[in-house]
Structures are given as structure tokens and as C-alpha cells.
């Protein structure tokens, strides 16, 4: 493998992938990558990371992301969940992803946080600034098969809204999962 | 002119091994789709091998540029005619040198999930908004009340941390 005398900086790879280089700059980077073993390895590693992130399904997804997953063939079972009520969802063989639609009045809020905790409170996960749709009044929790066992029991999902610098509790949501 | 046919398997295998990952990374950036990228690897390798067999690559030193040019044309072609991808893949699968599989292992998703959890909340949001939601620095900056310059700095540091974490190193 040749050693590169002018390795491509990580910032340049990021800019290339996020479309922030001009056409001429991007072409120059790609030409270098094709001729350089060291930079082609770095480019390949970054490509894996970038495409892994692109295909990553976070715990909370946007409505646009759900639409994209559906268009790509992901089989989704949507379950509306009201605050203070327990809903049920089943991960049968024909489902790739469960989406819990947490219904909440989110009009006018700046950002939304979601806290997941096990019923005994020993395991907690706080997700800040998650995607939400104020117009639809929904927060979409994407539940994946490998989440089984992440919490001891079905987690309690607590939604918090941040508005004008103040954080308020919106509601608690529970979904009873059948994993097969 | 290269005598590729007389050393067909070894020479062609070398070409495949040298360029498969480069072509795939290029395709991932332009097509943003793993299976389409895989199809492109096969298509480009096949086109390059055909050109070598037919003596259309006169100078071995220009092979890098030839492969990149073939990639550019193929990506434009694929973007124009997505439905053609499947046929290209099927043909390439039949005609590539026996035994060569341009295999590619994507990221370990569970590891990626764990590495993302190690990021700060704002860093994670910036990364996910960039790659999952396909938002640019200006849009993210408006949502997070940051300048686009700040978003770029946060994104760069977060990606570097993720890359190190994914490579198994210390952050």
C-alpha cells in the first residue's frame, strides 16, 4: 500500500458527504481517492459510517423518516397511544418495525424530550430534542426487534416539552409488547 | 496495450480487489443506497474488465482515471434509469471472474447505536439530522439556534468521535 503525502483531511470527507464541496473540489477529492490506497481506505471507512448513519433507525423518528422507510419496503405496524393509557403492540413475523404514535398537544413547543425508564426505575434513557410533529400532535417511537430485553418489562415513556426555556411534563405512555 | 487476456485471472482479480471498495464508496456517496452501490460495483468492474480485454485501456497508469470515469457515467446512467440496476446486477453476477465476490461488510448496527449513545445530546442530534433527516448545516442551525459554522464544527467532531468508536479505538 502506498503512503499518501497529502492525506484527505477528515473535514474534507465530511464536507464531501454532506454536499458542501463545489463540483470541482468533489471531483478532485474523488480523483485522488481512486489513485491513493491510503485515502481510498479512509474514504471507504467514512462511507460505511455515513451509510450506516443514513440507514440508522433512531428510537424517535420523524414522519418523513417513517414515510421513507415505508417507501423502501419496511413493514410497519403503527399503534396510536394516548397519555395515561396502556396500548398493545405485537411484533409478529410480518412486521419489521413497530411505531408507537404518542399523541400529545405539542403546538408551539420549541423542542421535545423523551425519557424511557423501566417499571422499577433502574434503567433510564433520556433522549433530548427528538423529532416531533406539532401539527399532527404526535411523537413517533420506533421500536425494533433487538430492543427486546433492553428494559426489564415494558418501559414507561415520558414526554417533556420545552417552550420558552421551560420544561413541562406532557404525559406518560405505556405499550405492552408481545415480541412474537 | 495490456495483455490482460493472457494473464486473465490474476490480473483481473487484482483489478477487482484494487477497485471494488473505491467504487462502492463512490457509489454510496452518490446513490445513498447499499444495494444500488453493490450493483454499481459489479457493473463498473465488468465494464472495466471488458475494456481491458478489448484493449481499450492503452495505458495502465491511466486505469485509476478510467475506473473513476466509468463510475461517473454509470452513476449518471443509474440515476436516469433506476429500473436498470437489477438487470445490470444479474448480468454482472454471471460475467465477473469466477470466485470474485465484491463482498462488503457494512457497519455493525448495534455498535453504531452504542457509539451514538456516547455522543452528547446536541452532537447526536446534529449527526442524526444530517444523515437520517438529510438536513444541511443551515437548517440544523436554525432548529438548534446555532450558526451553521457551529453546526459544522459540532458535526465534524461528532463524526470523528463516531469513527474512532466504530474502529474500536479510544475517543
Summarize the structure.
The complex is a heterodimer of chains A (180) and B (171). Chain A has 180 residues and is an alpha+beta fold. Chain A contains four helices and nine strands, in the order H-H-H-E-H-E-E-E-E-E-E-E-E.
Q: How much helical structure, as a percent, in the residues of chain A?
A: 25-40%
Q: Let me know the number of strands of chain B.
A: 0
Give the averaged pLDDT of chain A, no decimals.
93
Helix content of chain B: over 70%
Number of helices, where a helix is a run of at least 4 consecutive DSSP H or I residues of chain B? 8
- Note the beta-strand portion of chain A: 25-35%
Low-confidence stretches of chain B: 1-7
Which term fits the overall shape of chain B?
A: elongated
Describe the structure.
- The complex is a heterodimer of chains A (180) and B (171).
- Chain A is of the alpha+beta class and 180 residues long.
- Chain A folds into 2 domains: 45 residues, no CATH class; 119 residues, Immunoglobulins (Immunoglobulin-like), CATH 2.60.40.
- In chain A, 27% of the residues lie in helices and 32% in strands.
- Chain A is built from 4 helices and 9 strands, in the order αααβαββββββββ.
- A 5-stranded mixed sheet of chain A has the order 3-9-8-5-6, with no helix packed on it.
- The termini of chain A are far apart.
- In chain A, 28% of the residues are buried.
- The model of chain A has no long low-confidence stretch (mean pLDDT 93).
- With 171 residues, chain B is mostly helical.
- Chain B folds into 2 domains: 88 residues, Rna Polymerase Sigma Factor, Chain: A, CATH 1.10.1740; 58 residues, Arc Repressor Mutant, subunit A, CATH 1.10.10.10.
- In chain B, α1 packs antiparallel against α2, α2 crosses α3 and α6 packs across α8.
- Chain B is elongated.
- Chains A and B meet through α1, α2 and α3 of A and α1, α3, α5, α6 and α8 of B.
Amino acid at each position: 500500500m502506498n503512503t499518501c503525502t497529502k492525506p484527505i483531511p477528515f473535514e474534507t470527507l465530511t464536507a464531501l458527504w454532506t454536499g458542501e464541496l463545489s463540483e470541482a473540489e468533489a471531483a478532485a477529492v474523488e480523483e485522488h481517492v481512486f489513485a491513493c490506497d491510503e485515502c481510498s481506505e479512509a474514504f471507504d471507512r467514512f462511507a460505511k459510517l455515513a451509510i450506516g448513519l443514513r440507514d440508522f433507525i433512531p428510537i424517535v423518528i420523524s414522519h418523513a423518516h417513517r414515510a421513507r422507510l415505508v417507501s423502501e419496503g419496511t413493514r410497519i405496524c403503527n399503534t396510536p397511544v394516548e397519555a395515561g393509557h396502556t396500548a398493545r403492540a405485537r411484533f409478529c413475523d410480518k412486521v419489521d418495525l413497530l411505531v408507537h404514535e404518542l399523541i400529545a398537544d405539542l403546538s408551539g413547543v420549541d423542542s421535545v424530550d423523551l425519557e424511557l425508564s423501566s417499571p422499577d426505575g433502574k434503567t433510564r434513557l433520556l433522549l433530548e430534542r427528538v423529532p416531533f410533529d406539532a401539527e399532527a400532535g404526535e411523537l413517533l417511537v420506533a421500536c425494533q426487534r433487538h430492543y427486546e430485553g433492553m428494559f426489564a418489562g415494558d418501559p414507561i415513556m415520558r414526554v417533556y416539552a420545552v417552550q420558552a426555556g421551560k420544561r413541562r411534563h406532557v404525559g406518560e405512555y405505556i405499550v405492552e409488547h408481545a415480541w412474537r | 496495450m495490456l495483455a490482460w487476456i493472457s494473464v486473465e485471472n490474476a490480473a483481473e482479480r487484482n483489478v477487482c480487489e484494487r477497485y471494488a471498495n473505491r467504487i462502492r464508496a463512490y457509489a454510496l456517496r452518490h446513490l445513498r443506497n447499499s444495494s444500488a452501490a453493490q450493483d454499481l460495483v459489479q457493473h463498473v468492474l465488468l465494464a472495466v474488465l471488458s475494456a481491458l480485454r478489448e484493449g481499450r485501456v492503452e495505458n495502465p497508469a491511466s486505469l485509476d482515471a478510467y475506473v473513476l470515469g466509468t463510475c461517473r457515467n454509470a452513476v449518471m446512467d443509474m440515476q436516469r434509469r433506476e429500473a436498470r440496476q437489477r438487470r445490470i446486477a444479474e448480468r454482472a453476477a454471471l460475467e465477473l471472474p469466477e470466485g470474485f465476490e465484491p463482498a462488503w461488510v457494512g457497519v455493525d448496527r448495534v455498535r453504531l447505536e452504542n457509539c451514538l449513545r456516547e455522543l452528547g445530546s446536541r452532537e447526536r442530534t446534529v449527526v442524526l439530522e444530517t444523515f437520517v433527516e438529510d438536513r444541511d448545516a443551515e437548517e440544523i442551525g436554525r432548529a438548534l439556534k446555532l450558526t451553521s459554522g457551529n453546526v459544522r464544527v459540532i458535526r465534524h467532531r461528532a463524526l470523528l468521535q463516531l469513527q474512532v468508536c466504530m474502529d474500536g479505538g479510544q475517543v
